[in-house]
Design goal:
45% of the residues lie in helices and 15% in strands. The chain is an alpha/beta fold and 305 residues long. Its cofactor is Zn(2+).
Length: 305
């Protein structure tokens, strides 16, 4: 954040999800993966008058060669340069390293995710509470994960196994950690669905919702049918309020360039301006489509004051 002053439209995750849950829509948490693609997400949000979450995970930072500060600086620079007015959140996705979380908070991230889901329940609670206490003291929201969300591409996480979230454990976990948002495992996976098809266990979501008031998050949103997602978002009493979308954005970007192999962030930055705009346009269109037909967040920015 070059000025050191956070724009008024950049909120914490808790502030954003309170509105989403109240009005029955979900906010897309988009991973541009390359810093030049942050602009595309912001432009789409402004055109759709939709709130948006811009995120990156620890593994993505490492794989694409980006620091939390570089990502945050690009985000804040473009919020100002593009004159973005819609509500935004800058979120650190799946991260196990406390040092990375602290670095991101110092860089201006308004939300962080501690992922200790591979640990047993007691250890997950202890670690998540430690991060929640640290972040809350700095005015930052915290997301944590209970259960294990599988993956097909190992970009965001490094596990392909899946363990569904237990509603009773969710009640204890939220109560003892004080987190703001809970990522639940109920049938989706990170990456492209190549063999099994996505499913969302709505009954499990409903059971979790009945036992805890915390905002619910669904990871692995890429490739999930729109009608299936709508059922998860519109649960009685409040459903999923945050949906992570990463793979679809990168596929759109690479497809526009006629590429299959991923780039590093430096390689993306070195692209000819015309190719960068081609990629941005594809990502922008993908984000607008998700906001309109998948999340129900189009034209919802007016609910924020």
């Amino acid at each position: 954040m070059t000025t050191g002053i956070r724009p008024k439209n950049v909120l914490t995750l808790k502030q954003a999800l309170e509105v989403a849950e109240k009005f029955g829509f979900a906010i897309g948490s988009f991973s541009p993966r390359y810093t030049p693609m942050i602009t595309a997400v912001l432009r789409a949000a402004e055109k759709m008058k939709s709130p948006a979450i811009v995120q990156i995970s620890h593994k993505e930072l490492v794989r694409y060669g980006i620091t939390p500060k570089e990502f945050a600086d690009e985000f804040y620079d473009k919020v100002v340069a593009e004159q973005i007015t819609v509500p935004l959140v800058l979120h650190l996705d799946h991260t196990k390293e406390l040092a990375t979380i602290a670095e991101a908070i110092d860089a201006g991230f308004t939300s962080v995710m501690i992922d200790a889901s591979e640990r047993n329940l007691d250890e997950n609670i202890a670690t998540s509470k430690e991060v929640a206490d640290y972040a809350r003291a700095k005015g930052v929201s915290v997301e944590a994960e209970l259960g294990m969300i599988g993956t097909t591409d190992f970009v965001e996480t490094d596990k392909d196994e899946e363990l569904y979230t237990d509603p009773q454990e969710a009640h204890r976990f939220v109560d003892e950690t004080g987190i703001d948002a809970l990522a639940v495992s109920c049938g989706t996976a990170h990456g492209v669905y190549m063999v099994r098809q996505p499913k969302i266990d709505v009954d499990r979501l409903q059971a979790i919702r009945s036992l805890t008031p915390v905002h619910l998050v669904l990871h692995g949103g890429s490739g999930v049918p729109a009608d299936m997602m709508a059922g998860a978002i519109q649960l009685p009493g409040g459903g999923v309020s945050k949906v992570n979308i990463a793979t679809d954005l990168e596929l759109a970007f690479l497809g526009a360039l006629g590429r299959e192999e991923r780039l590093t962030n430096a390689e993306c930055q070195a692209l000819e301006p015309s190719l960068l705009e081609l990629g941005r346009s594809a990502v922008e269109n993908t984000v607008m489509d998700k906001m309109t037909h998948f999340l129900g967040s189009k034209a919802q920015a007016g609910h924020f004051v």
